[in-house]
Amino acid sequence: MASNKKYWRSVEELKSDNSLVEHLGQKEFLEEIPTETFLGAKENLSNSSTSRRDFLKYVGFTTVAASLAACEGPVLKTIPYVVKPENIIPGVANFYASSMSDGDGFANILVKVREGRPIKIEPNKMAGNWGASSARVQASVLSLYDNNRLRGPLADGKETDWSSLDKKAIDTLNTLKANNEKIVVLSGSTASPTSKKVIAEFAQSFGNVQHVVYDALSESPALDAFETMYGQRALPNYKFENAKLIVSIGADFLGDWQGGQYSAAYAKGRIPVKGNMSKHLQIESNLSLSGANADLRIPVKPSEQIFALINLYNAVTGSNFASKPTPADAAIKKIAIQLKKAGSQAVVITGIQNKEAQILANALNEALQSEVYDLTAPRLIKAGNDVAVKNLVDEMAAGKIGALLIYNANPSYSLPNASVFNEALKKVKFLVCFSMSDDETAQKSQFVAATPHYLESWGDTQFQAAKFGLMQPTINPLFNTRQFEESLLTWMGQNKTYYQALRDYWTTSILNGSSWNQALHDGVFNGNNELKLTKNSIDVATSAAALLSQTKSGDFELNLYAKISMGDGKQANNPWLQELPDPITRTSWDNYITISAADAKKLGLENFNVSNGALNGSKVNLKVKEVVLNEVPVYIQPGQANGSIGLALGYGRSAGMQTEMMTGLNAFALLQDFNPFQTVSVEKVAGIHEFACVQLQHTIMGRDEIIKETTLDDFINKPKNEWNKTPEFSLNHEEVSAERVDLWEKFDDTVGPHFNLSIDLATCTGCAACIVACHAENNVPVVGKREIRVSRDMHWLRIDRYYTSDMTNEKAKEEGIFGTGEMFNTMTIPSENPQVAFQPVMCQHCNHAPCETVCPVAATSHSRQGQNHMAYNRCIGTRYCANNCPYKVRRFNWFKYANNNEFDFNMNNDLGKMVLNPDVVVRSRGVMEKCTMCLQKTQLSILTAKKEGRPVKDEEFQTACSSACPTGAMVFGDVNDKQSEVALITEDERAFHLLAEVGTKPNVFYHLKVRNTEAS
Amino acid sequence: MSHYEAPIREPLIFGDKSYHDISVDVAAPVEGKANKLWWIAFSIALTAFLLGLGAISYTIGVGIGVWGLNNRINWAWDITNFVWWVGIGHAGTLISAVLLLFRQKWRMGINRSAEAMTIFAVFQAGLFPIIHMGRVWNAFYVLPLPNALGSLWVNFNSPLLWDVFAISTYLSVSLVFWYTGLLPDFAMLRDRAVKPFQKQIYGLLSFGWSGRLKDWQRFEEVSLVLAGLATPLVLSVHTIVSMDFATSIIPGWHSTIFPPYFVAGAIFSGFAMVQTLLLIMRKVSHLEAYITKIHIENMNKVIIVTGGIVSVAYMTEFFVGWYSGSSYEDYTYLSVGAATGPYWWAFWSLITCNFIFPLTLWFKKARTNLIWSFILSIIINIGMWFERFDIIVIDLSRGHLPSSWTMFSPTFVDVSIFIGTIGFFFVLFLLYARTFPVIAQAELKSILKSSGENYKNLRKENHE
């Protein structure tokens, strides 16, 4: 039906005779459209600037614009703060002081928090040596975002809630109390005074309560020895910075020995300022990090370490205790003379896990009146008691334990007699495991009380009697977790939070009237508490005799150790640590036995490289007493004492873990009687193990200018040219420094900052803290074992480790085989007991960068500040830059490493991604990446200073690696600021550029290594 | 009437051939039906090509990580294949352009196929720099296009960019040159064609060639001009490819000898490939009368010369590296370290294939032995592949810092892509052999009366 509606265009239409209406009726527009005038004026048209081509452009543009408007980009959801939390400014990081003290890492730290997320651990400079952050401490932030963490408490493996758990716990505990049954708290060392107090109160409240401290990597013998000698359960402190002579018998004090944290002090004494450098001698079986840094290293079997200690004691004190000869005896005589000469500036330490050996070492230090051996402030960090743990297992097996509360320990995994323990667990009436993950012990527990990560927790530390630290939450608990202490408080009916308990205790017992807020702000507090030592008389002769009688030698002796990365295995689910190459073997994702080349030959064991270069090795079965460990991979280790084999603990975790991280074998079963020295039988078995080793060539192949080194004697007495000669080229028939020969015009880099990074090879211990710091700061992807194995490691910073070889250019010339295949092939073989050198290598930020000239699209180019930039968006991935890089520091994204199930690490789950640094882009597949000299950090410093209208302070410029370096070997700063630390040391006599003769003019420079090798 | 040729010169066209015979012989493969052999060869080539396509798609879809490369050896088979194919693509232009300028009449029997091979080889070569990119979809960044990406421009310092220009110029000039030569021959096919469709197609392809004197005059002029243009390209392309290595600072790459040595190597391998193809084609397409022993021997002579240059270059490289006394030179691809190190097999493959075996060509018996020529041509192509592999992989595997030394092993994908390009090459060549006049018959006819066997004999009989 036709519509009868009439639409009016204007009121004028009401008047039918209006001319306008008539006009409109005929014409659509009021005014004539000047089509004719426009199109008719041919001349105008042809003169018009809008040509036919322009018209086509407009048509093209509008078509494209119209079609583009139809497309939709991906929608990214961001949620703004409706009410902005106090102190959070989006894009601005907050730093909170806290502490890590989980028995496997002890440090006072700063936590960098962005938008409420902790993303990076920084050292707390106020805490002195305790502020140093090791690789594990640096990596701990990722463990917070571990996808395998418990989301809440469990009862019999099923989710439960806190109130029902509490009800059950309180009922059971009270019943047990009424029946006077024994309740045991089994915890790892935490060095927390408030925690101890809460446990003590708990004990009071429930009567028959025992607190057993258990460390997987126990220092119990040292504690026992100290207790015997001085009446307190503590560890001596060593002031290595005061040492002239350090003699270590099997003590890896740059690693985990006695809780670690000695590298900063050690390094202070290792800077060769005109003859002022300590001398470090190491007698050990495995090539440890400390041994690698020693000036003289004598490899001996584990049992011989013990004899060597007695022999050394005899030689120094003139005693005549019974012992046995060792291969090191000749050296020991000389060492004794040196020790006596150095007197109070000498120190002897030992890692032998035997109370008598520790007594001997302590007595020796007393005899020397060592000032390094510091009894004024003993360490309280490790408190594990092996005897108590043994007794506990017995009592459990006998059914004498009513309740067992396990906290910060994983005995089902780490006890040597874990199977006995697991059986005994069944006889415990009430078993609660306080754990962050459903680990081996948690899986066997009735109840699992999910605990928060330390970055979500309140707490405190007392590393030394007067050195206190605070731990504060830096994020709201991610999951339904509750702190161990808070559970205890709840169960004993105290109606307060752990925070209140902590604060009360600090106010009454620690702060002494100082401000809580200040202490919390600083993270550390120096009290005036003292540990009263009573000096008990000891009979060294008895100890020596006991030691000798307890020592058994064998054809093969095992020396168990802990890796820098994995420690006791607490953080085994941390991909950063799994991927961190061991500083010595440069192998990741595995543990393996280390064996000397001679022994390997005897047993028919081999290491070989397959066609893609990757390392393969034989396998063996190990047998210690009745315990057999099957199919252990073999790594042939230069410097390993003949007759000894090393094996790392901390691997082979199998519960509460992601499959990818379940690497290696659990060697704790071999740690019988908590003794890392065991006689062992080794049997070759069929099969080949595939290693993930990032360094396949171990010697420097006669290219000595790569790691320059000299002896202290030469350094002091000879002119610089003899030990640090700058390479020279001939220019106009004149020998000039290679740096002066140049193809390029000099670019003016004097305006604004110009960054340099200095690395001192004398104080770099190879501890790898920088690698993890870089990993965390720069969102470096984890690529997994398969990729590491084929040299596709993504670490922006690596620490090259070189061994010396018996074959040198000089020796080859003498033998007349210089330049022959024989020379090359023998040069690739490291010495039996090589000297070791570490060299951190990252992008050298060359001022004349070979990578920059070859990129066809100019995706990598230089900044005025000296940094070599990567424009990821521009990169098309020809990889020419990486080929042309003489330092081989560029890393290519072979695959998509984020959001890819093939790479199921932290960048593949929402939780793990929370650790990403929002200031650094996550690189896509197909682009090159590399060290940026922490561009985001330097720019932040510059902009902050600019906003505040002041020049940048020297200490503000830091890279992740330089700030994490515990020894201060890395110094970063602006060389245009002539007063900056880095500018001052560029002129140092020890300074050199890596591959200076290539003419790349790097902005990273090294200070050569000095070895204090003279017998003095 | 063509020029006079001395009777002691051996004829370049065998048998009692007339102009018509030539037309018939050349048109035969186009007009006839493909035989079984062709179909078998084509199916194999096509399968290989499809395998390669699959491997390339897989690479682009998943990432370059599916190849065997690593963070120290960032190029291996990709650029090896690239340089190898570019090298192969050198013979065609040399034969048609340089020999034209030098008035070498023997080129006429082989130049068409040599040039076709060049073009097809350059196709393969051009593929690798593109697919080796981590982000192929941004490959256009290498073109100096005005853009809205800020002030971004290509980096004219980069040899890789020079490659972009060098290869594209070479390809376009070769293509034009080749096509120009094809015009009269297409016209011949058009004129002979009986099926209207064929007639139409060849009519289009021959650009309306009418065979007028003016056509011929212009044809000759253009050929000469293009030959002049193409000749420097023969030298420039591989010079620039060699600069990918020579301008870098990697021991073994950083070498001033590379440009001439690469050009010689390219011609060496290119001739070997022409040899391989022609020896097959003359048999399969019954062209023995036109591609004679003389042709084969002449090409073998070029192979001796260029092979000799290459061998001298090897020795120079070896000596200079050793003489430098620099430990960084100890493991370059021509060094004692390489000969005794883990890549000894690659080193010795190079020496055996490129230096020792070609020495046999100093003997005329070997030079004129077709079977040996065929085997040797394949050996040389293997050797030249190893030369590029050695330069790239051995040098990168033993860089400045021993800590970064590693090795390379190809994956299934690496191998498939290489096989794929060989397949693609043969797909193109086989299609060409069935649809194009494989011998420049128009040119050949110009020497029939001077160099044809029967005419020579006639002259001999008449004591002319």
- CATH architectural group of the largest domain in chain A: 2-Layer Sandwich
Taken from the alpha-carbon principal axes, the silhouette of chain B is: globular
Order of helices and strands of chain B: HHHHHHHHHHHHHHHHH
CATH architecture grouping of chain B: Up-down Bundle
Helical content band of chain A: 25-40%
| N-end to C-end Cα span of chain B | 15 Å
Annotation, overall tally of beta strands of chain B: 0
The tally of structural domains of chain A comes to: 5
N-end to C-end Cα span of chain A: 118 Å
* Largest β-sheet summary of chain B: none
Write down the overall geometry of chain A.
Answer: globular
Structural class call of chain A reads alpha/beta
- CATH domain class name of the largest domain in chain A: Alpha Beta
List keywords for this structure.
heterodimer; A: 1016 residues; alpha/beta; Rossmann fold; Dimethylsulfoxide Reductase, domain 2; 5 domains; eight-stranded mixed sheet; seven-stranded mixed sheet; 29% helix; B: 464 residues; mainly alpha; Formate dehydrogenase/DMSO reductase fold; 17 helices; 0% strand; globular
